[in-house]
Amino acid sequence: MIPYSDKAANEKLRLRKQFRTYRRNLTEGDYARRSAAIVERILALPEIGRARLVHVYWPMTRRHEPDIRSLITRLREQGVEIALPVVPDIGVPSMYAVRYTGEEPSLEPPWGIPRPAGSEQAPSHRIDTVIVPMLGGARDGHRIGYGKGYYDTFLQDIQAVRIGVTYQACLIDSISSEPHDIRMDILVTEEQVLRTEDPV
Fold first, then answer.
1. Which residue stretches of the chain are H helix?
2. How far is the C-alpha of 22 from the C-alpha of 77, rounded, in Å?
3. Given the DSSP bridges, would you call strands 53-55 and 129-133 parallel, antiparallel or unpaired?
4. Distance between CA atoms of 146 and 186, rounded to whole angstroms?
5. What is the pLDDT of residue 24?
6. What is the total count of domains within the chain?
7. Cα–Cα dist 107/62, whole Å
8. Range of the domain at 142
9. Taking a C-beta distance cutoff of 8 angstroms, is the pair 103, 118 a contact?
10. For the sheet containing 96-99, what is the strand order?
11. Could you tell me the CA-to-CA distances from 31 to 14, 24, 97, 116, 159 in Å, in that order?
């Protein structure tokens, strides 16, 4: 019998491949339309209307990660402070937040992870909302990321609304979860908003 943890890991590997294939097959037009729809759904959330310091991700557009750059611009225009993640060591599952200065992050090798231009850390206790990229996930709020553990580690110490972002085609009914996995409070796709406390 395969140990449960091995079964969960194998399932996640299979799903990561499936979700990456979906992203690769998006046309540029589809990518732009689906990203724009996701941004509008996020902006309509009452939690975003109340937010003061939002931790967001800078999209890896070459991988067709949902492009939320227009969301960042619009939130800043509304006076919302923005923080971006910094991964100090790609080999260690750790991450911290810095204030966004308005300057586009640079892409760091080998994975092209965006690194913000600023260096002023954003106090974690003031972050009220975290928008989390997902390769895919389940309707109960469990996410599948890239498997490095950056967000799971970061979110353990953050008391904030957790908003997971993915494409509708990458949202499935259930996945095997592990004790360290952090659930999302809200899931946003181009087609719907799903609050994970709601019946599914």
1. 4-24, 28-43, 46-50, 69-77, 150-155
2. 33
3. parallel
4. 19
5. 96
6. 1
7. 11
8. 4-195
9. yes
10. 96-99, 81-86, 53-55, 129-133, 161-165, 186-188, 193-195
11. 23, 10, 27, 24, 32
136 with 170: CB under 8 angstroms? yes
Supply 168's token pair.
């509708």
Which residues, in sequence order, are bridge partners of residue 129?
Answer: 54, 161
Between CA 48 and CA 58 the distance in angstroms is 17
**Cβ contact 97:153 at 8 Å:** no
Rounded Cα gap, residues 153 and 171, in angstroms: 22
Confidence of residue 5 (pLDDT cuts 50, 70, 90): low
CB 136 within 8 A of CB 15: yes
Q: In this structure, what CATH number is given to the domain that contains residue 43? A: 3.40.50.10420
Please report whether residue 157 resides in a domain.
yes
Which tokens sit at 19?
């979700």
Q: In this predicted model, what pLDDT tens digit does every residue of 142-161 receive, in sequence order?
A: 999 887 778 988 998 889 99
Is pTM beyond 0.85? Reply is: yes
Is 200 among the domain residues?
Answer: no
